[in-house]
Design goal:
Layout (H helix, E strand, L loop, with lengths): L15 H20 L38 E9 L8 E8 L9 E6 L9 E7 L6 E8 L2 E8 L12 E10 L2 E6 L3 E2 L5
Antiparallel strand pairs: 1-2, 2-3, 3-4, 5-6, 6-7, 7-8, 7-9
């Protein structure tokens, strides 16, 4: 027999004991689910889980270097990149020289940093070696935060530009807010020796 409309069945009426049983069951489900989380799940604010993206190294091809090559082009012959000042950014050390088919043109060594605007060209923040010093960089390396370069030059203006006779290693490291240079003693070679 079906109950008539408007008649309530006693077993369908909620009692305090029903509410208590439902609350207990729901609490148990929440407690158990908190024990089983996916690996790596953390409670952090939205947007803070991403690591800060490291900016790419400054591109020396986008820089106007302060070197006058006359009718010849300026070549970027070597580069190394890393966090030179320990501030978390990436800088590039670029070795440039005027293009030539013969001889050993002097090199310029410049430290580049990228401005906060990624569309802006990198800027020169330090000159480690100016072409006016008449030294040519043969090799450059970065170990940790120390930049080292094997350079060659001339003991006097009488030495032909195609035959450098002074060879040394120069190192630069960021200390006290500037690049400090340290060099190993130069070795000199003489013609016919």
């Amino acid at each position: 027999m079906q109950p008539l409309a408007g008649q309530d069945l006693l077993h369908t009426q909620p009692h305090p004991m029903h509410w208590l049983a439902t609350a207990t069951a729901l609490s148990a489900v929440i407690a158990v689910s908190s024990l089983f989380q996916p690996s790596g799940a953390t409670a952090t604010a939205a947007g803070t889980t991403k690591a800060a993206a490291v900016a790419p190294a400054p591109d020396p091809g986008r820089v106007a270097f302060p070197v006058n090559c006359g009718p010849n082009r300026l070549d970027v012959v070597q580069k190394v990149s890393g966090d030179l000042d320990g501030a978390g950014g990436t800088q590039t050390v670029a070795v440039v020289r005027c293009h030539t088919e013969a001889g050993t043109p002097p090199s310029g060594v410049y430290v580049l940093a990228q401005p906060s605007d990624p569309k802006a060209p990198p800027r020169i923040v330090a000159t480690l070696l100016a072409p006016a010093q008449r030294l040519s960089v043969q090799d450059i390396a970065l170990q940790g935060r120390v930049v080292s370069a094997a350079v060659q030059g001339y003991s006097s203006p009488d030495v032909p530009s195609y035959m450098p006779d002074v060879h040394k290693t120069v190192k630069w490291q960021w200390q006290g807010g500037k690049f400090v240079q340290d060099e190993l003693p130069a070795s000199s070679t003489t013609a016919g020796a």
